[in-house]
């Protein structure tokens, strides 16, 4: 079987590798020449894809810019980004561009599956009409389905193989065919009645996290004003064996899903004359957290009689989550930007992010930042001796709760 994959980022490359390792020929399409060259040489640019595995499987992966090569595929998976516009509205242009290009070479008998996260109705209302523009018909000449990606960068306990795969087709036959395809690389297939159910399920997963993170972040602000330790409160609540799921406060959300996906549904809801108040309130709270964290840093410096302006502030961790180098939507970028506007002298350390062109900084060694006026933990990476940093720093501002249980007193927690 030949399988086409459009978009070779955090979703597409792991899929391409998984199918190649399952013995399938993969036609890997992307417009980024650097990615294509890396795949050709077996060098991974994604943390979750081991270069040794990619090198071993490279003979079965055909990297190309040519959409025409997809005419040879039995199935085509669309894994392109679905970002937001500057006005926080869905930007489907990458998806529509990829679908139009695919429509020019599509042939009868092919299966097309959309993996890109989007609002309910996108597959039926946007993708299918473009695919049918040349005269082919879904359900007769083509099978089309939606199967949301569930990638969590940096995780090793849940992977593509053991994370259940949700599939919803335009027809029952499309659902079955897509399920059979994914069963080559996934242990469990969850079939739903249509693409809209699958599209909505993915949004529900991420909105659930967004709303609960916003809740605990808001409570963290309240606990601070009440003189309570939010981490102690969360630890205590988490001892309940039922009816409670632990979420922890932090400087805000980042990555390719949580800061983006909820807005796809809130935008779509307006077409149905409804305002999704929980979703929009959660987005507002989470977007404001970096600003609150800057205020917390200012207060911590003020307590030791130092202004932000002119103080040397070192940010510890700038990726959006520990153990990865992805800075997309990272709250650290907003914190750095605001501190810079207020006159701070900035540096950062991140073993996964060597350069931050957005702010004109390079990662510094830990020994170079230890004497900063304040070290601010934004992202907790593994392998860092946090007790040592707390002990040796002048002021340690902990936005991730790593100082819980430490006897030192020269730190401030969120």
Write structural notes for this entry.
- It is a single chain.
- The protein has 414 residues and is of the alpha/beta class.
- The protein folds into two domains: 2-193, NAD(P)-binding Rossmann-like Domain (Rossmann fold, 3-Layer(aba) Sandwich), CATH 3.40.50.720; 208-413, 3-Layer(aba) Sandwich (Rossmann fold), CATH 3.40.50.
- The protein is 38% helix and 14% strand.
- The protein has helices spanning 12-21, 33-41, 51-57, 93-103, 122-131, 172-182, 195-226, 230-237, 261-269, 277-303, 331-341, 366-369, 386-392, and strands at 2-6, 25-29, 61-64, 75-78, 111-114, 143-146, 165-169, 189-192, 312-316, 345-349, 355-356, 361-362, 374-377, 396-398, 411-413.
- The strands form three sheets. Strands 3-2-1-4-5-6-7-8 form an eight-stranded mixed beta sheet, with helices on both faces.
- The mean pLDDT is 95.
Strands of the largest sheet, in order across it? 3-2-1-4-5-6-7-8
- The structural class is alpha/beta
CATH architecture call of the largest domain: 3-Layer(aba) Sandwich
**How many alpha or pi helices?**
13
Overall geometric form: globular
- Number of self-contained structural domains: 2
Outline the biggest β-sheet: 8 strands, mixed
Annotation, overall tally of beta strands: 15
> Portion of residues in helices?
25-40%
CATH domain fold name of the largest domain: Rossmann fold
Compute the separation of the termini in Å: 52 Å
Strand content: 5-15%
CATH superfamily membership of the largest domain: NAD(P)-binding Rossmann-like Domain
Uncertain stretches of 5 or more adjacent residues: none
Report the C-alpha radius of gyration, rounded: 23 Å
- What is the N-to-C order of secondary-structure elements (H for helix, E for strand)? EHEHHEEHEHEEHEHHHHEHEEEHEHEE
Residue-averaged pLDDT, rounded?
95
What's the CATH class label of the largest domain? Alpha Beta
């Amino acid at each position: 079987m030949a399988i086409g994959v459009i978009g070779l980022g955090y979703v597409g490359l792991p899929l391409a590798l998984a199918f190649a390792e399952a013995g399938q020929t993969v036609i890997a399409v992307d417009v980024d020449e650097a990615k294509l060259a890396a795949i050709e040489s077996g060098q991974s640019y994604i943390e979750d894809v081991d270069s040794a595995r990619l090198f071993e499987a490279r003979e079965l992966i055909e990297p190309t810019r040519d959409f025409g090569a997809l005419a040879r595929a039995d199935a085509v998976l669309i894994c392109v980004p679905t970002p937001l516009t500057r006005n926080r509205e869905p930007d489907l242009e990458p998806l529509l561009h990829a679908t139009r290009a695919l429509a020019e070479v599509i042939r009868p008998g092919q299966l097309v599956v959309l993996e890109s996260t989007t609002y309910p109705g996108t597959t039926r209302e946007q993708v299918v009409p473009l695919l049918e523009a040349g005269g082919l018909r879904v359900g007769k000449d083509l099978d089309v389905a939606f199967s949301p990606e569930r990638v969590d960068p940096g995780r090793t306990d849940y992977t593509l193989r053991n994370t259940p795969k949700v599939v919803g087709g335009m027809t029952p036959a499309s659902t079955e065919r897509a399920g059979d395809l994914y069963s080559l690389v996934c242990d469990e297939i969850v079939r739903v009645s249509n693409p809209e159910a699958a599209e909505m399920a993915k949004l529900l997963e991420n909105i659930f996290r967004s709303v609960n993170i916003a809740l605990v972040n808001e409570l963290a602000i309240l606990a601070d004003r009440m003189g309570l330790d939010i981490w102690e409160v969360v630890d205590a609540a988490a001892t309940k064996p039922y009816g409670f799921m632990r979420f922890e406060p932090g400087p805000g959300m980042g990555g390719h899903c949580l800061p983006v996906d909820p807005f796809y549904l809130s935008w779509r809801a307006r077409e149905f004359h409804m305002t999704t108040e929980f979703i929009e309130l959660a987005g507002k709270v989470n977007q404001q957290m970096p600003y609150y964290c800057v205020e917390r840093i200012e207060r911590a410096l003020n307590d030791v009689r130092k202004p932000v302006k002119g103080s040397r502030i070192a940010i510890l961790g700038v990726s959006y989550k520990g153990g990865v180098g992805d800075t997309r939507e990272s709250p650290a970028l907003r914190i750095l930007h605001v501190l810079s506007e207020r006159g701070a002298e900035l540096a950062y350390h991140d073993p996964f992010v060597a350069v931050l062109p957005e702010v004109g900084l390079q990662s510094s060694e830990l020994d170079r930042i230890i004497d900063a006026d304040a070290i601010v933990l934004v992202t907790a990476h593994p392998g860092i001796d946090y007790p040592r940093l707390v002990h040796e720093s002048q002021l340690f501002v902990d936005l991730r709760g790593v100082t819980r249980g430490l006897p030192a007193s020269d730190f401030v927690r969120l």
